[in-house]
Amino acid sequence: MKLTKRKLGSVKIIVDNSYISTQGGIVFEKKIADKWVELQKWFIQILDVNDRIAVIQGGATMKFQMTKIGKDIGLDKIEMHFYNGSYMETKLQAYQYLGISYNSLIDNMTNFA
Question: Domain span at residue 90?
């Protein structure tokens, strides 16, 4: 399948991984890690420098691990990981990066707020 880039507009993606690593670091099986890298490479193919991906992490270790993976494959130009200790502060930092003030799916979650 051939992918083509958009001519106009930008994409803003927010990912909430906070629930994955609230109790510390996490190690993915090789099969899962390979799929994650495959997904990130797909993003590189279809997104451009005007697009943004903000990822809310639940811990510093996960933030650093995922930031490193992004740098290794070149996704760091558009993707940023956030962890601040406080879910609310982390979420607000992610929103600022995307240039948004809310996301109804995330804002309606009550588990972490």
Answer: 12-20+28-107
**One-letter amino acid for residue 7 of the chain:** K
Average pLDDT over residues 93-109: 92
Structural domains of the chain, count: 1
According to DSSP, the β-strands at 79-82 and 12-17 are unpaired
Distance CA 102, CA 44 (A): 25
Has residue 5 been placed in a domain?
A: no
80 found inside a domain: yes
Note whether residue 3 is domain-resident.
Answer: no
The model's confidence at residue 25, banded by pLDDT at 50, 70 and 90, is low
Alpha carbons 91 and 54: distance in angstroms, whole number: 9
Q: CB of 112 within 8 A of CB of 18?
A: yes
Residue 24 has pLDDT above 70, yes or no: no
Report CA 51 to chain centroid distance, whole Å.
12
Sheet of strand 79-82: strand arrangement: 12-17, 52-57, 79-82
